[in-house]
Amino acid sequence: MSKKSVYEIRILVFVITNLIFQLASAQKKELIFENEDLHSVIIALEQNSDLVFNYEPYLLKEHFYTGSVDLQLPQESITDILYNSPLSYERDAQTILIYLPDRLSYRACGTLRDATSQEPLIAANIIVDNTTVGVQTDGEGYFDMTYEGFKNEQISISYIGYKTRSISLQALPIDACPYYTLAIDDAFWDQEIVVTDYILDGITQGAEYSGYKLDYEQLSKYHSNVEHDILKTAQLLPGIHSLDESATNLQIRGGSPDQNLILWEGMTLYHSGHLFGMISAINPFSVNEVSIFKNAYDPSYDNRVGGIIDISLTDSIATATHGSIGTTLTEAHFNLELPIVSDKLSILLGGRHSISSFYDSPPLQSYGTKVFQYSKIDDQAEEVEAGFVNADQSLGFDDWNAKILYQPSKRISIK
Asked: What's the pTM value of the predicted model, to 2 decimals?
């Protein structure tokens, strides 16, 4: 082999070796991670760069990173690596300290609109994920809230029928309240909405006139959060609420309280409340069934603009003696089902009386404060001392009911 050939071979080997070295170097210019915990990411970065890290390993293992790191500019990647974690860092030359900072105060504000129509979305929910901190938009779609937390925590903006939007605290604009939009969730509207169950057992929706039936015995027996009050329990249903947090001042589907029809055993109940309407004048421990109609109802109820609440006792003749006695923090009550003639005649008795005469309970005090608004007559006034005015004011009430059921034959029933 000639000297020229040997020289050419050496040149070729050098070129190939240099090319392999450059390719190997190029492969090491970038590190790629897929859902890797931050501890492993920092170790890999430390091994492939001249950076030195100082940190507590347990802090990093709780968080993960997906992405790439440019080894030519490793310091520029630290912010991206820690972005989705609460961790922060400080740099001194080639040494980087990673630590968990104190919580910071963040302000989230803005106006929420429909992405298509630009109409404001009223009563939309803005809440910090995994917390109970949140607000709702007002009549103009505006919201404003502050929260102390870590930079990686998320705020969710949601509205029924729209796609939920998430924003990181660190992405919130400073000293600005921008416009936010929500897009309609097509998957939500493309499917039929069917109500299959209710949160509380004892509430069913009837097939006729979309009325609701409340099995009050089941409601009060199995749900401790249900107050023993018929008209307050009715406010659990959508579209029914009280204007002043009382039991009787009900708005049903936009109608005014005086447009509603309240029936007790088929009779119109004109005075439906005790204690100036704070408690309904209906013994809930005697009630068998409550039917509520909010917008459409049988013509037998007459033509009404508002809603209907039809309350009834049992129509079944008692086969054995049943009774109960008890008390709440506002009243004492009793109920009795007494058979007189087997399978033909029975009587139902019930009653309530307030306990204010011997115990001024906290609920009664609260009702008194709300009703009288601290306007009680001063017992030191001259008129009181002279005996012309009685300064003692107390809230008391009672109600009694009785029902006789008589069925002389299968075709005849008298109540």
From this structure: 0.52
**Range 379-411 burial, b when 16+ CB lie within 10 A, else e:** eeeeeeeeeeeeeeeebebebebebebebeeee
d(CA 15, CA 23): 12
Both structure tokens of 127 = 């809440």
Interior angle at CA 137, CA 136 and CA 140, nearest 5: 160
- Cβ atoms of 385 and 377 within 8 Å: the answer is no
Q: CA separation (Å) from 181 to 159, 185, 270?
A: 11, 13, 48
Q: Are 36 and 67 in contact (CB under 8 A)?
A: no
Distance (Å, rounded) from C-alpha 41 to C-alpha 275? 68
Strands 95-99 and 88-92: antiparallel
pLDDT in tens, the chain (415 residues): 555 565 566 566 655 665 554 555 444 578 888 888 888 888 888 888 888 889 888 888 888 998 888 877 777 788 888 888 999 999 888 888 999 999 999 999 999 999 999 999 999 999 999 998 999 999 899 999 999 999 999 999 999 889 999 999 999 998 889 999 999 998 887 777 676 666 667 777 766 676 788 877 677 666 655 667 888 888 888 888 888 888 888 888 777 888 888 899 888 888 888 888 888 898 888 888 888 888 777 777 776 667 888 998 888 888 899 888 988 888 999 999 999 998 899 999 999 999 988 888 888 888 888 877 766 555 556 666 666 666 566 678 999 999 999 998 888 999 9
3-class DSSP assignment, residue 214: strand
Write out the two tokens for 203. Answer: 């509430």
Question: Residue 181 corresponds to which tokens in the numbers above?
Answer: 């939009």
Q: Is the dihedral of CA 271, 272, 275, 277 positive or negative?
A: negative
* Gap between the Cα atoms of 381 and 387, Å rounded: 10
Residue 280 near residue 273, CB atoms below 8 Å:
yes
Q: CA–CA distance from 228 to each of 57, 222, 224, 281, 348 (Å)?
A: 55, 12, 9, 12, 20
CB contact at 8 A, 311 and 290: yes
Q: Which two tokens stand for residue 199?
A: 């949160």
C-alpha distances out from residue 270 to 8, 259, 264, 267, 396, Å: 114, 11, 10, 9, 19
